[in-house]
Description:
The chain is α/β, with parallel strands linked by helices. It is 33% helix and 24% strand.
Amino acid sequence: MTPPSNVASLRGVTVRFGGARTAKATTVLRDFSLDVAPGEFLVIVGRSGCGKTTVLNLLAGLLDATAGDVRVMDKPPRQARHHLGYMFARDALVPSRTAQENVEIGLEVRGVGRQQRRARSQELMNSLGLAGAESRYPWQLSQGMRQRVALARTWALEPDLILMDEPFAALDAQTRESARAQFLQMWERQRSSVVFVTHDLTEALLLGDRLMIMAPGGRIIEDMRLPFPHPRDPAELPFTDEFRALERKLKSWLSD
Ligand SMILES: Nc1ncnc2c1ncn2[C@@H]1O[C@H](COP(=O)(O)OP(=O)(O)O)[C@@H](O)[C@H]1O
Ligand SMILES: [Mg+2]
């Protein structure tokens, strides 16, 4: 079997809430199309309410399009769930499980043996700066650590496509920076396709290979490759002239 040329695609997708015949119906996406290539890190930026989460929910099979076609790994999204990881702004850890046991949940469900599970979860926890926190319970972890546990859990299954909805938005500035840096490093080692939603432009430019700016109605007002090669240094890159110039330009577009 040949691998799919796109990990995900939306073709001519319309999403309407409230039903076609009600006066209160709102059209969130109108004739929206998007392809995500294997290994691509796509960041979607746009104001609140423009339909970013809706796009992720379509890809996750949590929501059906009113019209149009949605595919993940060439399949309807509901049949492609084992290819997917989905991570939200708020972690959803199981309180009765330790950090490490939380990281292993997906592996366990998939039937991966205990030793292999341990090795994989330990490797991920080490690379995310969680060494020493393995046997702590979620209530014993800071918000930043909990979010990193959720990240490790998502990553553990090596999904072909990772959907991330403002995953660092609930963290304080400093924690957010280190979580971002660790995530970037991890992605540079093991490149899955990522669709990453954020309203933070600096974060978008720092992480993404491709940037899409959405406007209300799901209108795409920009879709561009980002010119920054990997590996990136998150402590340096945001202060380079090229980065700042692009950030300034895009900021003015976003605020129009
Ligand atoms: N289940 C729903 N029923 C009605 N309206 C919804 C529903 N889900 C989202 N919306 C509306 O769709 C629009 C886009 O939502 P969303 O995709 O969450 O935007 P974003 O993530 O860009 O902030 C918003 O105006 C929101 O109120
Ligand atoms: Mg949203």
